[in-house]
Amino acid sequence: MQTEGKVASGARVALGLLLTINLFNYIDRYILAAVLPRIRTEFLAGDPNQSGKAGLLMTAFLLSYMVAAPIFGWLADRVSRWWLIAVSIALWSLASGWSGLATSFAVLFCTRMFVGVGEAGYGPAAPTILSDLFSVERRGRILSYFYLAMPVGGALGYAFGGKIADLLGWRWAFYLVVPPGLLLAVLCLFRRDPRAASTSSVRLRSQAKLADYLTLLRTPSYLINTAAMTALTFAIGGMSAWVPDYIYSDRGGEFAASVNLLGNINVIFGAIVAVAGFFATLLGGWAGDALRSRFKSSYFIVSAVGVLLAFPATLGMLYWRFPGAWVCLFLAVFFLFFNTGPANTALANVSRPRVRATAFGLNILIVHLFGDLASPPLMGAIRDRSSMNMAFLVVSFAMLIAGILWFCGAKYLDRDTAVAEAAVQPA
Question: Distance (Å, rounded) from C-alpha 317 to C-alpha 326?
């Protein structure tokens, strides 16, 4: 483990590479949401349940992602994480290109499942590399930098996908992400896993026993944090999948005809996600670290406050006419991303190093199984039978549940962090 003020050799290079990979990770993931109206038109035209079926494309990705994540997390505690990441990037990049070749809805469903498998290999491994390279005092800020890729990559996915769909067709949005993904995969093959710096470090990792996993499942702050992240993921997953389509299809009458183009709406929404998410992720990580000296449970408190403020902002977006609704949407996105760094830092801090990748993998499984696996198709089904406003209302109540859970878990966080840190043996 690194001490305060010291940075492991190659740590900043690793952070830069992993951040870039994470950026493309979210670009690939959110291109689908950007081009979803075009896909509905091509493959589901005339189907009375087309919105619900279109939402299943997100479910396909999440189903394979969440099932494979614990398996890859277990592997990441035992094999070279950089090689695992390289294979994963290559897989999801090629699967994205295959999405552009899809000749039917069923084929597209299959390609999204392969994208999910590829991302499942990356999700548990990358944050554990950074947790090994940086000390607990710096970890909140570092993981916030890493997770900046979520809003920025997602925004680029919306903007890139929407514009390419307007200019070249929706299939090209998938084709063009393949070459940079394969290049990043090759670069990972030249990196050395930080835990391989000493044989004792490798031995420490390989000796994880059943008791280590049972301890994880008996850690209150890990369980409560995972439950809160699940509730929030339920809300974010549904909303992120449908916001561009909702604005374009349901609220398009509030714009001039020249503005109500899918590409334009995706660019505006992408810009909001990029700016609001960028500053929220940075400020959330900074606030969690800065307040930790005064409040040992600052990571949970910061997360709770942010998500509770996101709820009224979401309601404002639904009932305030555009262009004013953009302001509420900006605030909703800002507060939804405010917890990203603190919540993931808490996850790393309360997990023993020997099983940390497994902890992230198990978290991914639970968060998506009970979170956003159901929310996109659920919102689509509610829209088919009622309205998209009602669909947004249903999922947004999960934000309140997440906030309450983080406040309840605050009393356990300091104790559980201390227990996990005490389990670290020096190399």
Answer: 7
For residues 258 and 245, what is the distance between their CA atoms, to the nearest angstrom?
A: 17
E-strand ranges in 91-149 read: none
Give the helix/strand (H/E) hosting 148.
none
- With a pLDDT cut of 70, the percent of the chain lying above it is 90
Rounded CA-CA distance 399/300 in Å is: 14
pLDDT number for residue 9: 62
Q: Tokens standing for 375?
A: 């929310």
The whole-angstrom distance between residue 279's C-alpha and the CA centroid of its chain comes to 16
What's the rounded Cα separation, in Å, for the pair 419 and 105? 49
pLDDT-derived band at 3, boundaries 50, 70, 90:
very low
Average pLDDT value for residue range 31-35 = 84
**Residue type for position 375:** S
Token pair recorded at residue 288: 């969690």
CA 287 to centroid of chain Cα atoms:
20
Contact 44, 93 (CB under 8 A): no
What is the C-alpha to C-alpha distance for residues 229 and 245, in angstroms, rounded to an integer? Answer: 25
Amino acid identity, position 301: I
Residue count of the chain = 427
pTM above 0.85, yes or no: no
Q: Do the Cβ atoms of 414 and 291 come closer than 8 Å? A: no
